Amino acid sequence: MSKTVSMHFLSLRCQILFVDDGNAPEWQFHEELKAIHPKVQVHRNEKRQGLIRSKVIGAALISSPVIVFMEPHCVVSKQWMEPLLEQLALAKDHGTLVMPILDIIPENNFNQYVPANHHIGGFDWTLTFGWKALIEQRNSSYKYPNVYPTPALSGGIFGIWRDNWERMGTYDTNMTEWGGEHIEMSLRTWRCGGRILIVPCSRMGHVFRAKNPYVVHVPEVMKNTKRAALVWLDQHLEDYYKKVPYARRIEAGDVSERLRLKESLHCQSMDWYMDNIYPELRAELKK
């Protein structure tokens, strides 16, 4: 790590904010969280806003130039932050998003820790995320542990420059609860001048749960996914409908604001994304 980058890190203001999204009293733990460290703060949404809006609310409440979004069911390893910050510092245009490797903590045994392989993230024509090929299979010249590009975010764990977060339109806040926002942001990032990198030197354990501990309304997830499709799939919207025919009947709300954002950012087409970033998705059309 260069001295210049190291000195840049020292200038960053570190804040740790937990968002209590309308939790019941027995699940709040505010005082316990604040007792961890003087930098820890807690914000409470008195009414549940959902994961997507809660992240937008939380990001607006901190002042640091870099935002690292995380989830409470994670355990970080030592020096997990520095490799992420180094890659962000190297991004002259601030257009880079960075992800750690997400190792596996089994839900039924928190004492276990299973290192994950270094796959790329992707999705199919239902806009459902999945871990795809190993980076060595995709790029025979790849040498571990170099950073590598991924076509898609796996979820909401990533680092980003604040100015880029705001310039790029944060999240679509007409999406509700949870789901679809990571696919939307992946398409928006790559097609509007940015890139997404996985940083293998940064690792954290993630509890992959069999089911969410909170209520997830599937129609809301489908609404979110359709909003992403309406804005970003261009002439390939019908390919989405072929895989998810009932989505035609879903009322997804007005997406004109997000279409204006897309136009203002001078974004590339869906065909450009498949040709240059994620050719595997085009190959699925031929199956």
Identify the CATH class: Alpha Beta
CATH architecture assignment name: Alpha-Beta Complex
Mean pLDDT: 91
- Straight-line N-to-C gap: 45 Å
Largest sheet: 4 strands, mixed
Pfam family, one: Glycos_transf_2
GO biological process, one term: protein O-linked glycosylation
Domain Glycosyltransferase 2-like: 13-112
InterPro entries: Galactosyl_T_C, Glyco_trans_2-like, Nucleotide-diphossugar_trans
Fold and architecture overview:
The protein is of the alpha/beta class and 287 residues long. It has a single domain, classed as Spore Coat Polysaccharide Biosynthesis Protein SpsA, Chain A. It is 35% helix and 21% strand. It has twelve helices and ten strands. The strands form four sheets. Strands 4, 5, 8 and 10 form a four-stranded mixed beta sheet that branches. Helix 2 links the parallel strand 1 and strand 2. The longest helix has 15 residues. The N and C termini lie far apart (45 Å).
What's the structural blueprint in terms of helices and strands?
Layout: H1 3-10, E1 16-21, H2 30-34, E2 40-45, H3 51-61, E3 66-69, E4 74-76, H4 81-90, E5 96-106, E6 119-123, E7 129-134, H5 135-138, E8 148-149, E9 158-161, H6 162-167, H7 181-191, E10 195-208, H8 218-232, H9 237-243, H10 256-264, H11 270-276, H12 279-285
Parallel strand pairs: 1-2, 5-10
Antiparallel strand pairs: 3-9, 4-10, 6-7, 8-10
Protein name: Glycosyltransferase 2-like domain-containing protein
Organism: Effrenium voratum
Keywords: Disulfide bond, Transferase
